[in-house]
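Last lecture ended with a question: if I hand you only a sequence, what can you say about the shape of the protein? Today we answer it with a concrete record. The protein is Late embryogenesis abundant protein. Below, first the input exactly as provided, then the predicted structure, then a couple of comments.
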Amino acid sequence: MTDKQPILNGAYYGPSIPPPPAPKQTYHRPGRGGGIGCCCGCLFNCLLSLICKLIFTVVVIIGIAVLIVWLIFRPNKVKFHVTEATLTQFNYTNNTLRYDLALNMTVRNPNKRIGIYYDRIEARAFYEDQRFDTQFPSPFYQGHKNTSVLSPVFKGQQLLLLGAQELSDFNEDKNDGVYNIDVKLYLRLRFKFGVFKVGKFKPKIKCDLKVPLKTIGTSAAGVFETTRCDVDF
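The predicted structure:
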């Protein structure tokens, strides 16, 4: 005999329908290196790329600006010459050097659009790589395509310890009547481009001189020859 639900109010009701199963709750365990860490890594790479692009752009702009300035002003090195050198005393006795050396140096600015401020000038005199005097010529401004003259005078006495080889070189110079004296200039410069003043440059100037000793109005070893100096920026 088949079981049937009773007829209620003219309607037939079949077997009851069970309720739908409750949704299964899942738990996600965050993995290592994912999620926020991945986003941070992407952000770091983006910032690094942006910084590199900015640096590259700035370098390009500076390079273009320097090229434009160079094309406009065409800078050339300043030229230094020692045109006169008068040595009236250069004696070495008892480890003491007594000297009297006067120089005339020409400083030529060959630039058409660049002026130069010589803010500091230090002139040093050397014999056998030992300094025996220092002078400080007055600072000055040099205009375009202009030649200026420096006239340092080294006079006095200085303790100088010469070894056997250096003493032999001194006696050889004494016999020849011509002394190998080095004069170096240590400068601090600024350049003027139009209304702009640029930089604090510190070039070094080296002049290798062969100076004849002058006695009683004449030089026993000839006349000093104009010498060009080396400029090191």
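Comments.
1. Residues 95 and 160 are 5 Å apart (CA to CA).
2. The mean pLDDT is 85.
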